[in-house]
Amino acid sequence: MDKIRVSAISYLNSIPFVFGLENSPLQSEIELSLDIPSECAQKLFDNKVDLGLVPVAIIPQLNFSEIISPYCIGSNGPVETVCVFSQVPLNDIEEIQLDFHSKTSVQLVQLLSKKYWDISPKFSHAKEGFENNLTDKLAGVIIGDRAYQYRSQFKYVYDLSEEWKKYTGLPFVFACWVANKSLSESFKQSFVKALHFGVDRLDLSLEKKGINFPSSINQKRYLTEIISYDLDADKKQSLARFLKEIS
Q: On the chain, which terminus has fewer CB atoms closer than 10 Å, C or N?
């Protein structure tokens, strides 16, 4: 039987999921790759994987999509790793460079600019290394673990999850486990059990996997106080609203 191809995000916030999958009986049934969010999305588009932890903004663009897990990457307030970094206040920003790592953050900053912040900056797609070129009225969206690295270099940091919460009163969902084809119920049940195993053992997952990530981050605090893994009713409502507003 062919293995189910799975793409997970190569960020700190995915450690519990990866740990769970790597320590599950399911390990022998899947082919797991770790990718930045935009690569997860592209692999799902191109049918190079069957299932991925993908930026939610791509869900409407898939020919077939099914959220197969009650777990997600979300935050109920500041997420700290998806932010606009700027040397000037929002109203003075003339251009925002968009991080190439994720489609969801791109859509979210454009939505907030138009509907909440009431600003009309130019948006441009950033290239690798753009973080070091953000000066004067040129701001940028930086996502992932490296957002911590640049925080101290900017006068203004606008957390997109926190701004969404101010705008809607809801948490934000950045990524979900999405399949691009029908998968068996038995596989889906085993997959969810594997994710639960990891989420239920955050300390152990950090002990085994955290060494691969910056030690400057308080990893346990980030995974327990900042990231919220349950795709609960509020997050489902938020996801539906976000997808409607960007459609």
A: N
